[in-house]
Design brief:
The protein is built from 20 helices and eight strands. The chain is mainly alpha-helical. The strands form four sheets. A two-stranded antiparallel ribbon has the order 1-3. The chain has a two-stranded antiparallel ribbon with strand order 2-6. A two-stranded antiparallel sheet has the order 4-5. A hairpin with a 2-residue loop joins strand 4 and strand 5. Helix 1 packs across helix 6 and helix 7 packs parallel to helix 10.
Length: 525
């Protein structure tokens, strides 16, 4: 945890120095003077949004996607990029996982630094009522961000929650709710129980929803704050975003009735609806439409991770593995079984998979690439911004999928599945219970591919996999494409349903410096 706490201090310093405030020379600002008025509070809050955006774009989604079964690495061009994860030979020393672990805790530290200072401002009577309500909104957003980071930690570094294991010691994550960087190792927390971890997450979300609903109720529907947050495609957290995260968490906890209720609440709101065919195309290729004209906003996006054109060139890019700046290169391509999930009438197949000529060992071959994150036309001007997309951490489609998995009756579940399929250009029959689960799982993989859900879904289903390494190259004359171009020993990799690798290891760097988590490593590492 020393690494976490020192990294947290650096992260908070970065938030303080990048928030548009007139600060003293670098390193000279005092923490107690950093957030002393509503303007400071707003700038620091913007830094929390930047941190959240970093979680949504690129690396974390890519780690889980290449680890599972939907993609194959092209040996001549992938350069062992995420090779340990793809090949399944990662360990507790794998730096990618250590970076993710530290990133979550640095984001949590930012919230822990912010909340007590913001609370002091809220309790002061110096500010206008409007400023007071703005800060209550900021507090709700901060609680949301802390809950989101802790939940993501559970999804990667913990086994699934259940009534049977919720009180087992050291199956959760270390819980930190106060900002107190220190090198005193005796004060570092050990791993909590899963029950304790989820208790904090749900408490934070309750606080977030209460604050955001209070702020929303105080606004006129003509207020700028209301207009920027209470619509589809908003880059800001509102109470419906909290409800969407509650649905996702209830699903992960195996609380199906609660998951269905939360999902149905979002579906039933007046703000969101499934995309029309043209809106769906625009979502991935043109613009989500939240800039400027409200009439062009995409109705399906519950929340986006905002990116402006000037930022595109400096951000990490979700698409970097699927289609590189040199458009003749793709490190990872969809497996043949992935392509075969979709019918020809499915809008997703038409948009998310494209044939491109790739140069492989001096030969140009027409290969199907994954083009879901190929980049918006908005950012297509230079090679450095090609592949920069505006990610959508919450979409209404996910709520329909949760309702289709967890609904209270066969009718409710089939109706949810049918609504999503028809919105994507394909028909759906009514399935009996013994076939409905299979269809919902198939649809969830079709819809959420590339967005980082596959690892947790397979673990929740209790399903393993074997990668498909059959040829997926149109008109390729050789029978041995996989031998020539796929990664041998990994292209047919299998995970058993109980494979320990479905849960990532606690980084060895953390165990080395925190005596409280020695002996608390996840099984198998």
């Amino acid at each position: 945890m020393k690494k976490i706490f020192l990294f947290a201090a650096v992260a908070v310093s970065a938030l303080l120095s990048s928030c548009e405030m007139e600060l003293l020379p670098e390193g000279a600002i005092k923490q107690e003077e950093a957030i002393v008025n509503p303007v400071n509070a707003r700038y620091f809050r913007n830094g929390l949004y930047n941190s959240f955006r970093g979680l949504c774009m690129g690396a974390l989604n890519n780690y889980t996607e290449v680890q599972m079964d939907n993609f194959q690495a092209l040996a001549p061009v992938y350069g062992n990029n995420l090779g340990n994860i793809f090949k399944g030979d990662f360990t507790s020393a794998t730096e990618d996982f250590a970076g993710a672990f530290s990133l979550f805790y640095s984001n949590i530290a930012g919230v822990n630094f912010y909340l007590p200072r913001l609370q002091e401002l809220i309790e002061s009577d110096e500010w206008t009522e409007q400023d007071h309500m703005k800060m209550i909104r900021y507090r709700g957003e901060a609680y949301f961000f802390r809950a989101y980071n802790y939940f993501m930690l559970t999804q990667f570094f913990c086994q699934d929650y259940s009534e049977a294991n919720k009180d087992v010691p050291a199956m959760g994550v270390p819980l930190v709710t106060e900002y107190n960087p220190t090198t005193d190792r005796s004060t570092y927390p050990g791993r909590s129980t899963l029950g304790e971890t989820y208790k904090l997450i749900l408490e934070d979300l309750t606080n977030a929803k209460n604050d955001l609903e209070a702020a929303e109720a105080s606004m006129s529907n003509r207020d700028n704050d209301y207009l920027e947050m209470m619509h589809s495609g908003s880059p800001y957290v509102n109470s419906w975003v909290v409800e969407a995260l509650n649905a996702r968490i209830a699903l992960a906890m195996g609380k199906k009735d609660e998951a269905a209720t939360h999902a149905q609440n979002v579906i039933g709101s007046s703000l969101y609806k499934l995309s029309t065919p043209q809106e769906f195309v625009n979502m991935w290729t043109v613009s989500p439409g939240s800039f400027g004209d409200p009439d062009t906003r995409n109705s399906e996006i519950i929340m986006m991770a905002m990116v402006t054109g000037t930022e595109a060139q400096s951000l990490g890019q979700t698409n970097s593995l699927w289609w590189s700046y040199n458009i003749n290169n793709s490190m990872y391509v969809p497996a043949n079984s992935t392509l075969n999930m979709y019918t020809s009438s499915d809008y997703r197949k038409q948009i998310w998979f494209q044939e491109q000529f790739l140069e492989l060992n001096g030969t140009y071959l027409s290969v199907n690439i994954f083009s879901k994150f190929i980049g918006l036309n908005t950012f297509a001007g230079t090679s450095s911004s090609r592949g920069c997309v505006i990610m959508y951490p919450f979409r209404l489609a996910e709520m329909y999928l949760i309702l289709a998995e967890c609904g209270s009756s066969n009718t409710v579940r089939n109706d949810a599945l049918r609504a999503l399929r028809e919105a994507r250009g394909i028909s759906s029959r009514t399935y009996p219970d013994d076939r409905l689960d299979t269809q919902v799982r198939l649809e969830r993989n079709r819809e959420l591919i590339g967005e980082g859900f596959r690892l947790n879904d397979l673990r929740r289903y209790g399903e393993g996999f074997t990668r498909d390494n059959s040829v997926a190259v149109p008109n390729f004359p050789l029978d041995n494409f996989n031998t020539l171009y796929f990664v041998q020993g990994a292209s047919d990799l299998s995970y058993n349903p109980d494979d320990y690798r479905f849960v990532w290891p606690i980084p060895s760097t953390e165990i080395q410096v925190n005596p409280q988590i020695v002996g608390q490593q996840n099984p198998g590492y």
